[in-house]
Specification:
- Chain A: It comes from Winogradskyella litoriviva.
- Chain A: It holds the Pfam family FixS.
- The structure holds 2 protein chains of 2 kinds.
- Chain A is mostly helical.
- Chain A has one domain.
- Chain A is about 60% helix and about 0% strand.
- Chain A starts with a helix and ends with a helix.
- Chain B is α+β, with helices and mostly antiparallel strands.
- Chain B has 6 domains: about 1-55, no CATH class; about 65-145, Alpha-Beta Plaits; about 165-285 and about 415-465 and about 730-790, no CATH class; about 300-335 and about 335-390, Calcium-transporting ATPase, cytoplasmic transduction domain A; about 480-505 and about 615-725, HAD superfamily/HAD-like (Rossmann fold), CATH 3.40.50; about 505-615, Calcium-transporting ATPase, cytoplasmic domain N (3-Layer(aba) Sandwich).
- Chain B has a 7-stranded mixed sheet, sandwiched between helices. In chain B, strands 8-7-9-15-10-13 form a 6-stranded antiparallel sheet, with no helix packed on it. A 6-stranded antiparallel sheet of chain B has the order 18-23-22-21-20-19.
- The chains are: A mainly alpha, B alpha+beta.
- Chains A and B meet through helix 1, helix 2 and helix 3 of A and helix 2, helix 4, strand 5, helix 8 and helix 9 of B.
Chain lengths: ~60, ~800
């Protein structure tokens, strides 16, 4: 047996893994809304109660 | 920020702002919302954006229908004993503050466990505990903080919508196969006769075969289906040569690896399908926040308050309204059926229906048509018809609404594909016959090679990328087009039909001109001050038109409903109102809306209201008149005829007194005479005409507010650029034709290799993606140049 079988198996496995992850991501609805999460991410700080100092910095336009 | 704008909503606070915690508010509603947020540590709302809020509306009793079991069931997407999930559409969502506050709803109501905003669709998905709260209180909470959900009859019908993600899956499968096949076929491109490369060749080839299976049988499914449908209808659409190419590629490659003739064309096959699907994906630009399919159902409420025989109020579904039912319409509610006004002062805003923003006053006994919105307190009416039989809603029983516009339309790609397919097949046959005589072993090889290399990937990509890119450019310029085929039809237009009210006139202002004896200063003063005290819509409009004057206290003021106002100040006794009321019996012209004035019983003159036309209407029509037949098709009377004649080029046809069905028939008639019609309208009364026309564009002052079903929505501020938009779509057709030329050049090079029998897999693998990519680059650059010209 040659090492190439292992290499091929590994490469196909990696490919299939990413493909499955992609399908799962689409299925969970990640691609349905591509704007809101980008804004939501910035709110992490504001959710804390002592927020005044942080929120001033993130003030947008 | 000026001190005088409201801290919550940004509106002008006027002279008497309400001050609270050093912040000024325009009204108590805004102040209350601020107080709610302040108490709950949510003032961060105001830090993210300046004045993000909106004034909470009066909603008392409006959402009583939300306690009805069958309505809740339709509106929620998940229900169990303890948990309920509902997705609500909130038009006000517009900034990051909105997202923040709506996702912190649980601070305001601890029984809401989760709320998630979809900014693009302007929806919030709320999960709440059913044992301690309910849908109605969630909706009331949202309304109280200025985020009133919009619940219409449409939500009731549609049920749960499934998002169609098949294209992404197909693209993913194709991309996965394409990448891996390229990777596996790479060693053979160099044809090095190395020992272990030779040894593993079959394994590599069969792996490629395996990877190509899902591409052929899953990803390219649509092409086979469409080609089959085309052939059945005896049309050689673009998918016929594509499907032919894919099957020949697959079959020949399989035979090659079975008999060990060569490595096959799996790489080209995967690349072809991948590029085609990318094109398809690119063309599908969707505007989540817009809907092009609206009918009256999106405007109408789900439920309405009925007064039953015993005099009690009860909530019923609109579809259950029967003739003779007594219905209660609250302030800001829509009238769902034709009826007779029984009680209350009706001031109906028909702007949904006609585009006319002037409110209409009605007395009890008057007939009210469905689609109007009550704007002044509570009224009671008696239904004359059911919802579906009302004057407005009847329009939707016309066949046009069930017809698909794209069906009868041959796109530029399919036109060219007919000639292309026939040419390629003839080239293939001639070449095969030639080789049969010269070297019969190569004949089959050449036949398949021609079909493979001529697979019109580049042609199939030209239109999607050009139109897809143009759709995005138009979208940035506030012209939202439904799909690519609309742009193509727009380029072929030769007749443009405009609605008048709301389309070429502006909703926001109207003009009033005075005719008659000049009023003295003191008379003007009394006039302005008496109008100030009146709530009649005409008084409000006239008040806004007149110059500022001092505020004085009138000695006497009386409003005669349906007639006019009588006011007294010092020596002046003024009457303002209808011709009869002020004592002018000679009045003849009744076409325009007029307000008459008399002072001390002497007739002075009248104010006539004229439509105020949008800026640039005249210029736009002059640009358009060179190439198009222009028609104004109005539902109004002829009062504006003279005005329009002055404003518009002489050859513009002016047609008045058109009912919604008349507009539809007018367009149908002209289409039968060969006209390609672009209809531009705005109200629900244009819905039939918009559906019948080749391209129907709705003009909208605010794209978030509703517009009727159409092919495109144009922001009112961009109305004067209509000519440029049409020109741009015409140029797009030129770009597509040029890219056809480009792809023919590639095809001729490829055919040379194919016909001479020298088509190696590596040539195909280079040539096919190269042609596709250069088409993509060419169309993208060309449309971007086009877009820059537009700005």
């Amino acid at each position: 047996m040659s090492v190439i079988y292992i290499l091929l198996a590994v490469s196909v496995f990696v490919g299939v893994t990413f493909f499955v992850i992609f399908i799962m991501a689409v299925r969970s609805g990640q691609y349905d809304d591509d704007y809101t999460p980008s804004v939501r991410m910035l709110f992490e700080d504001e959710l804390v109660k002592e927020k005044n100092s942080i929120s001033k910095q993130t003030k947008t336009d | 920020m000026e001190n005088n704008s409201c801290f919550h909503c940004g509106d002008d606070c006027g002279n008497h702002p309400i001050t609270f915690q050093d912040k000024s508010f325009c009204c108590n509603g805004c102040k209350t919302v601020f107080e709610i947020f302040n108490e709950n540590d949510l003032t961060c709302y105001y830090d993210l954006e300046n004045s993000p809020g909106s004034i909470p509306k009066e909603i008392e009793g409006k959402y009583d229908f939300l306690s009805q079991e069958n309505i809740i069931e339709k509106l929620t997407e998940f229900r169990s004993d303890s948990i309920e999930i509902a997705t609500l559409y909130i038009p006000h969502i517009h900034c990051s503050s909105c997202i923040w506050i709506l996702e912190n709803l649980n601070k305001l109501n601890p029984h809401i466990s989760d709320s998630q905003v979809n900014f693009g669709k302007k929806t919030v998905r709320v999960t709440y505990n059913l044992e301690t709260t309910n849908l109605k209180s969630v909706v009331l909470l949202l309304s109280s903080i200025g985020y009133e959900p919009y619940i219409s009859l449409d939500d009731f019908k549609s049920g749960k919508q499934q998002i169609n993600r098949t294209l992404i899956y197909k693209l993913g499968v194709a991309a996965f196969g394409f990448g891996n096949i390229m990777f596996l076929s790479f060693p053979e491109y160099f044809e090095v006769n190395e020992y272990w490369l030779e040894q593993y060749k079959p394994l590599f080839r069969w792996l490629m075969f395996a990877l190509s299976l899902p591409i052929v049988f899953y990803s390219s499914q649509d092409y086979f289906i469409s080609a089959f449908k085309g052939l059945k209808a005896k049309i050689l659409n673009i998918d016929v040569p594509i499907a032919l190419g894919i099957s020949v590629l697959f079959i020949r490659s399989t035979i090659e690896i079975i008999f060990d003739f060569g490595s096959g064309f799996f790489d080209s096959l995967a690349g072809l399908v991948f590029f085609l699907l990318v094109g398809k994906f690119f063309q599908k630009k969707t505007y989540d926040f817009l809907s092009f399919e609206r009918d009256y159902k999106s405007y109408f409420p789900i439920a309405i308050t009925k007064i039953n025989k015993e005099g009690y109020e009860e909530t019923i579904q609109v579809y259950d309204i029967e003739k003779g039912d007594r219905i209660l319409i609250r302030n800001e509610e829509l009238i769902p059926v034709d009826g007779i006004l029984i009680n209350g002062k009706a001031q109906i805003d028909y702007s949904f229906v006609t585009g006319e923003s002037q409110k209409v006053s009605k007395q009890s006994g008057d007939k009210l048509f469905a689609g109007g919105k009550q704007t002044n307190g509570v009224i009671e009416l008696e239904a004359l018809k059911s919802v579906e039989q009302s004057y407005l809603t009847q329009l939707w029983s016309n066949d046009v609404f069930s017809k698909n516009k794209e069906d009868g339309f041959t796109s530029i790609t399919n036109t060219i594909s007919k000639h292309f397919t026939i040419t390629i097949l003839s080239v293939a046959i001639v070449a095969t016959i030639f080789w049969l005589f010269v070297d019969s072993n190569k004949a089959m090889n050449v036949f398949t090679a021609v079909l493979i290399i001529a697979c019109p990937c580049a042609i199939a990509l030209s239109a999607p990328f050009t139109f897809g890119n143009l759709l995005r450019i138009f979208g940035k310029l506030k012209f939202y087009v439904k799909n690519a085929s609309v742009l193509e039809q727009l380029a072929q237009i030769n007749t443009i039909i405009f609605d008048k009210t709301g389309t070429i006139t502006s909703n926001k202002q109207s003009n009033a001109e005075y005719e008659g004896d000049v009023l003295s200063d003191s008379e003007n003063l009394v006039l302005k001050n008496s109008l100030r005290g009146s709530n009649h819509p005409l008084s409000r409009t006239l008040y806004n038109v007149l110059q500022e004057n001092n505020i004085i206290t009138l000695d006497a003021f009386e409003e005669h409903i349906g007639k006019g106002i009588e006011a007294k100040h010092n020596t002046i006794n003024m009457k303002i109102g209808s011709a009869n009321f002020v004592g002018n019996t000679k009045e003849t012209s009744v076409l325009n809306t007029t307000v008459h004035i008399s002072s001390n019983n002497i007739y002075k003159g009248k104010y006539t209201f004229y439509n105020s036309y949008r800026k640039g209407v005249s210029k736009l029509f002059n640009q358009l008149k060179q190439q198009f037949d222009l028609v104004i098709l109005s539902g109004d009377n002829e009062g504006e005829r003279e005005n329009l004649k002055k404003l518009l080029p002489a050859k513009t046809k002016l047609i008045f007194n058109q009912k919604p069905e008349d507009k539809l028939e007018f367009i149908k008639y002209h289409q039968s005479e060969g006209a390609k019609v672009l209809m531009i309208g705005d109200g629900l009364n244009d819905a039939g005409a918009l559906a019948q026309s080749d391209v129907g564009i709705a003009i909208s002052e605010d794209v978030n507010v509703f517009s009727p079903a159409c092919d495109g929505i144009l922001d009112a501020s961009k109305f004067n650029q209509l000519y440029q938009f049409i020109q741009a779509s015409r140029s797009a057709i030129k770009i597509i034709k040029w890219s056809f030329v480009l792809s023919f050049i590639y095809n001729i090079i490829g055919l040379y290799f194919a016909v001479t029998g020298q088509l190696e897999p590596v040539v195909a693998a280079i040539l096919m993606p190269l042609s596709s990519i250069s088409i993509v680059i060419f169309t993208t650059i060309a449309t971007n140049i086009l877009g820059r010209k537009l700005e």
